[in-house]
Amino acid sequence: MAAEKSWVRLVTAQTPTNIAVIKYWGKRDETLILPINDSLSVTLDPNHLCTTTTVAVSPAFHQDRMWLNGKEISLAGDRFQNCLREIRKRANDVEEEEKGIKIAKKDWENLHVHIASYNNFPTAAGLASSAAGLACLVFSLAKLMNLKEDQAQLSAIARQGSGSACRSLHGGFVKWIMGNNDDGSDSFAVQVTDEKHWDDLVILIAVVSSRQKETSSTSGMRESVETSLLLKHRAQEIVPKRMIQMEEAIKNKDFPSFARLACADSNQFHATCLDTTPPIFYMNDTSHKIISIVEKWNRAETTPQVAYTFDAGPNAVLIARDRKTASLLLRRMLFHFPPGADVDLNSYVLGDKSILQDAGIKDMEDVKSLPSPPEIKDVNSNQKYAGDVSYFICTRPGQGPIVLSDESQALLNPETGLPK
Ligand code: ADE
């Protein structure tokens, strides 16, 4: 009897990363990843920061395997296993007649998957790669296995891989509702407004050079929950009110309120880290200098121009009210943080490079001749710190996950199911 012809079914998807403006810090359930407060984020444009993942299934595969940025990694960790289990449970019949593929719902438990994932930004730069990565894993597997669940229900699965991943299942502004149920069924992410609602905003990320190894978010959160009274107060008294105000600010495109709330929330999150025993330091001197520069500028204007927010690391995420403001922000950033001696401008400002033109900067000569910002009156605030920022990424609010239907974008070979 001739061997049955084998087949490979592929799905490729692209998923954005996100940055919280009302922070998630602290779990009430470590296994299900249930938070102690709601959080709210902006999804970043996947053209600049995203994960692309191809998932494949074939009767010829003998085990589940995964490659991250070209290197095989273990799928043994809970974060992957929880997502795989929850998706397999909900898999449905799949039929692709032209390829001779017919998978019955009950077949999925015996079929293995191959997963190849690629982050278009440095995985170790502290730019929420696990959020985009786990969201992309869940979204692409859900398409492969023909799940009927909506984005909110998929977000509850992604949450079990990495908490903040649930917010990457939507574009625009997204809130993660903490929920109250012990089984986590009411803890998922929903869209507040889509990415077109407030498309004036420009986001400039300063990837800050850091020598020290940071406390992981998982252990940092655990220590804060166990020891910080400020975190308890924040979760119970502050965040519920702030969530309402932040949603209102976003819906009304009220930048002054948005900036005030985002900056206050970032600062309070870092205050809870300091209130942890032993204290945790995520920001460094460069982060603090960036805060001072923005605060000074905002106070010199009649209304705030830029909001800042910092996650569990030293990188600054700066949100400018519009393009004009973003170009003025870039001029200030390049004045204080010019590239190091061996770095050229083209590899120093990434993402939407048109911001350089808007800022009137074409080369290093232009950077060197930038004037001191007008709000700076004393010479001590006028200093330059070449090399303290590794690079900038200019981006904006962006869309949620999409399927890439062009097979040339797949990361796995459609014949073998192995990395291309
Ligand atoms: N962690 C960091 N990046 C990831 C990715 N693309 N997929 C899964 N986990 C990740």
Automatic annotation (TrEMBL):
Which EC class is this protein assigned?
lyase
Domain Mvd1 C-terminal positions: 203-403
List the subcellular locations: Peroxisome
InterPro entries membership: GHMP_kinase_C_sf, Mev_decarb, Mev_diP_decarb, MVD-like_N, Mvd1_C, Ribosomal_Su5_D2-typ_SF, Ribsml_uS5_D2-typ_fold_subgr
EC number(s): the record gives 4.1.1.33
Gene3D superfamilies for the chain: 3.30.230.10, GHMP kinase, C-terminal domain
Record's GO cellular component, any one? cytosol
**Gene Ontology biological-process entries:** isopentenyl diphosphate biosynthetic process, mevalonate pathway; sterol biosynthetic process
Q: Name one Pfam family in it.
A: MDD_C
Look up the domain of life of the source.
Answer: Eukaryota
Presence of the UniProt keyword tRNA processing in the record: no
Q: Which reaction does it catalyse?
A: (R)-5-diphosphomevalonate + ATP = isopentenyl diphosphate + ADP + phosphate + CO2
What GO molecular function terms would the record report?
Answer: ATP binding; diphosphomevalonate decarboxylase activity
Q: Which UniProt keywords apply?
A: ATP-binding, Lipid biosynthesis, Lipid metabolism, Lyase, Nucleotide-binding, Peroxisome, Steroid biosynthesis, Steroid metabolism, Sterol biosynthesis, Sterol metabolism
> What range(s) does the Diphosphomevalonate decarboxylase-like N-terminal domain occupy?
16-189
User: NCBIfam families given for it?
Assistant: mevDPdecarb (TIGR01240)
Family designation: Belongs to the diphosphomevalonate decarboxylase family.
What this chain does, per the entry, is described as: Performs the first committed step in the biosynthesis of isoprene-containing compounds such as sterols and terpenoids.
Q: What is this protein called?
A: Diphosphomevalonate decarboxylase
Per the UniProt record, the source organism is Chenopodium quinoa (Quinoa)
Encoding gene (name): LOC110732714
